[in-house]
Amino acid sequence: MAALTLAVERLAAATVLTCHGALVAASAMQLETALSQLLLRPEPRIVVNLAAVPVIDCTGVMMLRVTAGIAVEQGGSLVLAAPNAQVVHTLREGGTLTTIPTYRTLDAAVARDARELVKDPEPGQSTTTPWPVNSSDRRRSA
Description:
Elements: E1 5-10, E2 15-20, H1 28-38, E3 45-52, H2 58-73, E4 77-81, H3 85-93, E5 102-103, H4 106-111
Parallel strand pairs: 2-3, 3-4, 4-5
Antiparallel strand pairs: 1-2
């Protein structure tokens, strides 16, 4: 699998972290370092662009969930943009679509266009249980 590369772009409305490659256990430290840096800003507004992420595992999902929680605690936010169908499936399996706003496109995420949110299935359609997150396990560095 290709190595993870990250790019940061600071816009007026948000800071965009664009990921290229798999968000899996092997790339967790790279992702953690980048997200930790973005959390240093006051009231961080972070958009994670997943357009070039072919796959994400539970480690990547949990890192995003923990970082989103820290961002909210700091008066900011973390949202996801442009995931492919496989990434959406993993986010859904982990219960993340109900905890982190996920948009179909990067532009929609930056603009917070609610019409472009990726929706979780209607109640009763999913047969999975969201992965638990223990808020006491959050590390300040993400």
